[in-house]
UniProtKB/TrEMBL annotation:
InterPro entries according to UniProt: DH_E1 (IPR001017), PDH_E1_Alpha_Subunit (IPR050642), THDP-binding (IPR029061)
Protein name: pyruvate dehydrogenase (acetyl-transferring)
Naturally occurring in which organism (per UniProt): Chrysochromulina tobinii
Obligatory cofactor(s): thiamine diphosphate
GO molecular function, one term: pyruvate dehydrogenase (acetyl-transferring) activity
């Protein structure tokens, strides 16, 4: 098997290097095994571990096939182009409301989805366009929601921060910082209650890592041993504030205190995949675990943030040059001779066409009709349910009807 990089001989627990426990000794987790056509890839960045001294962490290598790497490369490139187009739409004043982009962080979500299934629940923050895509929706629907056009996601009423696909167990983007943390615990409780073999993943950023509700929910999850994976996407800056200025302890994988944690290279899709595979197995057997994915966002916090007032252009360019997740996947494919440059170029071209077509269809879409503004407020709400509007001439329903 072809090896791409030398593996680390030890992992760090806190600041101390310790050898990992033999993988075979952990019944809940199986080490990666070769399959037909797969190549072995060793990870060049070791994990940092918290409270896993006895158990050890994930494997420091994996096996990947051409099909898998092509799939990951294609998905990440589609994410990147989708977000870049969203940037253009926002600047052209087509996007209604806020807009938080994901470019730079593609390996985190792609690696997560490669390790779990749609039976596993996912909830995230307002940086949520790509989650809607990976859970099976179309770019056209995503753009329509961004542009306030009628579509199946939130009927054009939610916008960028309120993606949602319950049929694929994606419980949305959440506009309140950290609000997804207790929701994730609730989803994990549901999986345990139903005994359906699923886990819940709650994604949040380093900025949300200091929210009190995160710790309250994690305490309950630990008490009840819920199958919960907290994923801190540490993109280095919470809004305009660097992690060192906002967190007394910026080792987010240790912030669970009594809950184990792992820090992983969030710019390597295969590294993330293996880490999440371990985390899912651990959560099903032992309860909650905290993952910190060391990543980087290229855009500012939101479109109102230029992203270069608190960091310089050289920093952003340096990450693009040395750690870009899409370029890393491309290098795997080319250096392992699993694909040609022409094949990858065709994938990129197809993604650009897909984005362009989706944008045009979204622009041509119709906005929601006025009456939809008064719907979806209460469960089983009737058409005659009375709702008073700011302008009394457009009150909805029939006076006195309260169901």
């Amino acid at each position: 098997m072809l090896r791409l990089a030398a593996s680390a001989s030890a992992r760090r627990v806190g600041s101390v290097a310790t050898a990992a426990r033999p993988l075979a000794a952990r019944s809940f987790y199986s080490a990666p095994k070769p399959t037909e056509g797969a190549v072995k890839i060793d990870f060049d960045v070791p994990y940092d571990l918290h409270k896993l001294e006895e158990i050890g962490g994930p494997a420091t290598y994996t096996y990947a096939t051409k099909k898998e790497l092509i799939e990951y490369f294609s998905l990440m490139y589609r994410m990147r182009r989708m977000e870049i187009a969203a940037d253009t739409l926002y600047k052209g004043k087509f996007v209604k409301g806020f807009c938080h982009l994901y470019d730079g962080q593609e390996a985190c979500l792609t690696g997560i989805e490669a390790a779990v299934t749609h039976n596993d629940s996912l909830v995230t923050s307002y940086r949520d366009h790509c989650q809607q895509l990976t859970r099976g929706d179309t770019m056209e629907n995503i753009y329509k929601e961004l542009l306030g056009k009628y579509n199946p996601i939130a009927k054009g009423k939610g916008g960028s921060m309120h993606m949602y696909k319950p049929d694929a167990n994606f419980f949305g983007g959440n506009g309140i910082v950290g609000a997804q943390a207790p929701i994730g615990a609730g989803l994990a409780f549901a999986h345990k209650y139903k005994k359906d073999g699923g886990v819940a993943l709650a994604m949040y950023g380093d900025g949300a890592a200091n929210q009190g509700q995160l710790f309250e929910a994690l305490n309950m999850a630990a008490l009840w041993k819920l199958p919960l994976i907290y994923v801190c996407e540490n993109n280095q800056y919470g809004m305009g504030t660097s992690k060192g200025r906002s967190s007394a302890n910026s080792n987010y994988y240790t912030r669970g205190h009594y809950v184990p944690g792992i820090k992983v290279d969030g710019m390597n899709v295969l590294n993330v995949r293996e880490c999440v595979r371990f985390a899912k197995a651990y959560a099903l057997e032992h309860g909650p675990i905290v993952l910190e994915m060391d990543t980087y966002r290229y855009h500012g916090h939101s479109m109102s943030d230029p992203g270069i007032t608190y960091r310089n252009r050289d920093e952003v360019a340096g990450v693009r040059k040395t750690r870009d997740p899409i370029e890393r996947a491309k290098r795997y494919l080319l250096e392992l001779e699993l694909a040609t440059a022409a094949e990858l170029k065709d994938i990129e071209t197809a993604a650009r066409v897909e984005v362009d077509e989706a944008v045009e269809k979204a622009k041509a879409g119709a906005p929601p009709v006025r009456d939809l503004l008064f719907e979806d407020i209460y469960v089983n709400q009737s058409k005659q349910f009375y709702i008073r509007a700011c302008d009394r001439t457009v009150d909805h329903g029939v006076m006195g009807v309260t169901k």
